[in-house]
## 1
Amino acid sequence: MQVEKTVFISYRRTDIFIARSVQKELQLHGYDAFLDYLTIDSGSFEQVILQEIAKRAHFLVILTPDALTRCPEPGDWLRREIEYAMQHKRNVVPLLFEGFNFRNVETDLTGEWLPLLRDYNGVEVPAVYFDEAIDRLRNRFLNKPLAMILHPTPASRTLPVTTQPPKPVQPPPPEPVLAEVHFEQGMKHYRNGRYIQAADCFTKALALNEQLVDGYYWRGHTYRLRADSRRAITDWQTAQKYQPPDRRADLIHSNICRLSGQFDEALQIITEAIQQYPADAELYRNKGAVLYDKKDYDGAIAAYDEAIRVNPEDAFACFNRGLARASKRDMAGAITDFTEAIRINPEDAAAYYNRGNAYRLKNEPDKARADYDKAIELNPQDAASYNNRALIYGQQGQTDKELSDYETALRLKPKDLLVRKNLEIAREQKHKRA
């Protein structure tokens, strides 16, 4: 029997870089690996996706700790893709990244088919052994004829294998698809430190699906990072109305307590959640954030250490540990952490900005300016990067560039009194030298 080398890769848009790495590695070994980029328009999305699943022998699903959290929502496309592959007896292979564990997502495995996902043999893919794991995937999981694959099946349903594209069953309206596209674009902006753009995308997603819990959750974080606690708490309180009781509910409740200054209650909530989900890096990150806000920087660093132990590729944890170390005036340690965050996600403008700050405080202006340059390249709307690069230009006597950066920063953030004051001082100094 012939071994087929056709593969469909299913993933959350937040995991696009992982999915592309898998696709590239398989293509290097002669596989026809399909990846549904965001270039498919919403009108043909369903038809193209379901046809591609049906005609390919192998179905890989990228599983990271948060990949399945939105599967219980109506019209969730990752769930539909997984169920469709199961129903049409594709060779389903879960790829487990970043410490993913099925024990932590029990409440997300809803419906008739999705709970069967844990019955399929999966491949753990540690970051440091990516090549070895993909070799094992090819040699042990993708080298079997489709007819030899055993499929877990609900007792109530069976569907014949077909090589023709099956007729779609109960297609969802286009709004959930578009909402997911906007949400995933928002997550890309968020991961890369572009919080204003992220909030705009989450708002568009919520306009199409007002029960999108993750939209409120992550938009709340964008408000928090922009020091707008009132709107952050409002978003999280709205998310609570739609969120079933699980780890995400604990995270939401803890964040509300944290921004309300109820640090002990926030710590109690998150500590109990960690006892229930000890392999969840996001919970450790949340604990670290609460301790950071309490100015317990050693405790925060220890919590981030645990998050990184669970998931060595957690860029958020590396970044946050860098902030905690910087708060202890450990600039060398902060630079190490920000550099690691950049290695994991080289598109993170916030990591370059904060590493630039650490270099500036270490009196290494050239390295600081290079990082501010990169932060501005990645996020031209970041007023803080212009302001801090202007400080470097001022120290180096490049007055025209200093003034230009302060003016740009003030244009981007006209109510920032510090930038306005810096600009006034720079203009006065230039006038005195004239």
## 2
Amino acid sequence: MKQENNLSYERILDHVKKEKIFPVYLFFGNENYLKDNILNKFKNKLID
């Protein structure tokens, strides 16, 4: 799999939708809402 750096919010959402989830993600930045939203999408996809 090709390595990708600095994935945008939209790219990560696309990964979740396509179930192309990497083993590790590093979330950083000031927008806690975006981080929380992405984490909830991961949880919903992985737990279902």
## 3
Amino acid sequence: MSATARIVTGRRISVAAPRKRMQTLIASVILAVIGALFLVPLLWIVFASFNETATVSMSLPETWTLDNYTQVMTWELTWSPLLNSIAVSLGTAVI
């Protein structure tokens, strides 16, 4: 009786695997750039809101203050329009 040895081969190497990795890398870089394009202006606005001189500059504020927020959070500028919007929204949702 003669036994034949079973031939064991390694995993198949896919030609598409490096291409798939490159596409994933390119997609990740593009998404990171798009994310930065949305995030940088948003952070710029947030940092500018804490600037005491109320100037729009590309640097971080030297002194951080909430004075700009206290000037805006008045009944006439914020709370009255907000309550008005809530009343209209609730009325629309009921209808």
